Description:
8 strands, three-stranded antiparallel beta sheet, single chain, 5% strand, globular
Amino acid sequence: MRGMKMKVGKRIKRKIHYALSFLLILLLVVSSSTNITFAKDTNKEDSEISKDTPKRPFPQHVTYTEGTIKPNHITQEEMDATVARLYDEWKERYLKQNPYDKDQYYVFYNHNGESTTDPREAITVSEAHGYGMLITALMAGHDPDAKKYYDGLYRYFRAHPSEINPQLMAWQQAIINDEIVDVNGVDSALDGDMDIAYSLLLADKQWGNDGEINYYKQGKLVIDAIMESEVHQKDYYLKLADWASDNSNTYGIATRPSDFMLQHLQAFNMVSGDERWNKVIDKTYSIINDVFAEYSPNTGLLPDFLLKDLDTGKFKPAHAWFLESSRDGDYYWNSSRVPWRITTDYLVTGDDRAKAQLSKLNSWIRQTTGNNPANIKRGYKLDGTQLTNSAGDAAFSAPFTVSAMMDEANQKWLNDLWDFNVNKETAKGAYFANNIRMLSMIIVSGNWWSPTAVSLDHMNHLLENYIANGDVNGSLTNQLTNTLKQAEHQYVKGHQKQAIKSMEDFIKHINNKGLQNQITSDAKRVLINNAEALIQLWTD
């Protein structure tokens, strides 16, 4: 019996041993499977994080053109914190989710009855939408959800195309019968389209194109549409919208100085390779200086609208009630943005063709206000006569904060303008003033950056996009990639001449007659233009 018990005991021990071994193996398998699953999930999360993580997060602290200034009575950290606060307030007040499509967002512009003669139910306009797409792209990094909002704004933009050119945005929407619909003509407005296009270039640099939206491709589509439908095809000036026919002697001869976003135009030129953009840039600067010399030599003011004289071909201030109000030929609500829009090009690119006009504008506004920002009125005739005693609106004062950056002689004026504008309560301000202030303060704090600034990084980004889209293919892909790497290697080592030589070889590869079937004409123009700009930068 004892022997039997011993045998039984051994069998029981063996069973227990086998059971424990089986359980151990099972645990290892489950653990391994869990680890694999976890690793897959982690990789997925890492991929999502990588895809949504901004490459140019706020704050950026850009160095603008030599000789320009920023406020110096506060620290950079204080400026950044103020811009972040203004953004949080802007987002809370203006950025709204589409109640009928949760994947869309828009910028609400009708808190204070801005929609007067329009439908009372109006919710937004393309101008506001462009502002929102710029702001969310630039504030990524501060706002962890910036990409979600930007993509939602993009979807809303695409859901409301112009009937004339569907790559552009219908200019106004309203909620009617529980639906967001286009109202007042399903056509475009140039300013919104230009900001949307520029914002897509920012988004391309900010998040890349591995997600749902190819920002770079979409940006180029909008840029090409602007050229096709909102630029006069013979004289190359900016028109009001896609509904303004080149052949119209009423609206086809009009342009609006607040649309003179010259730095946008410079970016469009660098990205598209369309040489017509240079003509638009030259024409725009020519119009600015002609009007300044003829109509506002003592003030530098530009009117809300300009019309081309059919006899002389020169532009002159529009007559009363040309389009919007009795003040269409004065410096009024539209042109309040001019000091911001035109100065930005000088700050970022150094193009000084409007410097005389802007310098006169700065000296005149300081003199007429006694260097007190609170005295900036809501509108002036071009000779400087004030249109009203009303003052203190940020829509007029914030843009002067940007233009004040041009010259160190404006330092105290710039400091005072900063304080005056940032201390205004967002909740008490109107949509127009708050959005203009938001963008102006981003610039003044040094956090406005160019998505097409000449650099090796930009060259690499362009080439990667062209290869991904198939615009550069075959053996030319490796040739250009390797040559660009050589240029970068030489430049990092401080061998500037060798780096220039590599970029010259880069251009030679592109021009190789035997490889022309491996590169599109657009890619060829853009890559050569940017390579030549980089060579010029290194040579200077």
